[in-house]
Amino acid sequence: MKRFPTRDCEYFDDDRVAFIFGNLDPERALNFEQHLGECERCRGEVAVGSSDIDALMLLAPEVDPPIGFEERVLSSIAAEPSTLLQNERGQRIGELTTSCHAPVGRLSRRSRANGSRHPYRQRSRLALSMVGVVVIAIGSFVIGGSVIGRLGGSSSSPKSVTVHGRALAPLVVSLTSARSDIGSAAIYQGSTAWMIVDLTNVKDRGYVRCRLTEPDGSAVDLGRFFVARSHTSWATPLPAGWSHAREIEIVTSNGRVVATSHVKL
Amino acid sequence: MEFDEISPETTDETLLLAMAQGIPEAITVFVRRFQRRVYGLALMIANDEPLAEEIAQESLLKIWRHAAMYDPRRGSVTSWVLTITRHVAIDRVRVRTLPRVDPEALYRDELQSDNRSPEEEVVVGDSVEFLRYALEQLPPEQRRALILASFYGRTANEIAVDESIPLGTAKTRIRSGLRNLRKQFTAEGYLNP
Ligand SMILES: [Zn+2]
To answer: Which CATH architecture has domain A170-261?
Structure first.
């Protein structure tokens, strides 16, 4: 059953704007956040407004910081005793000593047990097994928290991926807009399938959503990505059952289709 | 991925991933890559060099601590970094007496200026042109309200005082500014989230 917001959105007009700018007073914020949890319309407006404000920050000029700034930042990071590793939902998934120069600390038992003479690298490897976040970029290939291989090839040609020393060829489909080729999607199959989208000739700038269209016409959202220049790439894990999808679509929030695979997956 | 592969060519997303794992090279490259941008925004908001340095340092520490929480589906690394910097800066500036700011001067001297490095132009070049154009199209009073609220975290009440206008007018200017900015983005093909 559809749940209706407890109060009219109009009641929250001022609060919504203040919330977008990050200056809503904490007491009112509690109330508004409760409404936000129930109201899709306000959530949409907050998402759009916040990303517009975030975008404005790009206008701030770059300025050289004072001499020694970089060293001061790096030594304050080195002085931090440890940091919590968290996944994207903020759940704690491990603890890691991250001081640049300090001993391996909490993780040293394992490093020593492994007989490593390179505690730093050991630490990194352990950290990899703990990180639940699936961040991926062209250049490395991370599945289930472990880096399993690297992408090769030029960004405009189909890429091969080396997994544990074995080369895997992706399934590559081209992405088109008004019948012209504007990029490709390369799908790497495995226990978790990944898709690397590579747009090479896009005129628009800003956020797009990437989705899979199911045979019944419904769509599975794969997330929001930022198109900052004509050549843009991103990677996203694919849900189980992705191979039943009809096509890949890249759309704006108005629903305008920027690109489609036009090929049955 | 072997971590000695971290280099100035490493993508922002990979750097964050490596930072989340405490890889020193990644931290160094990341700080080197973003410090001018972070400090620039901090200085613009704080308008005070020592405070801007504190803000920039705190922001970079925060970014390092929360690197694992970055979600590439929600936007670019640059945008995430600047959002954190903006929040830190506004929090720090607000505990002091609010500095007087002239949003038009800021707009003219900073936001419209073209003192970006070639490297930065490659990263944000056309987006910046786009944003400048969009801001330029707004009525000046809405642009001022938008700049005060977004870069300085000014509330409607504070903008009313700053601009010597009734509170209702300040609220309308902020809201219309936001709505018209969105209209510009949509009209000019700056896509929606
Ligand atoms: Zn609502």
So the answer is: Sandwich (2.60)
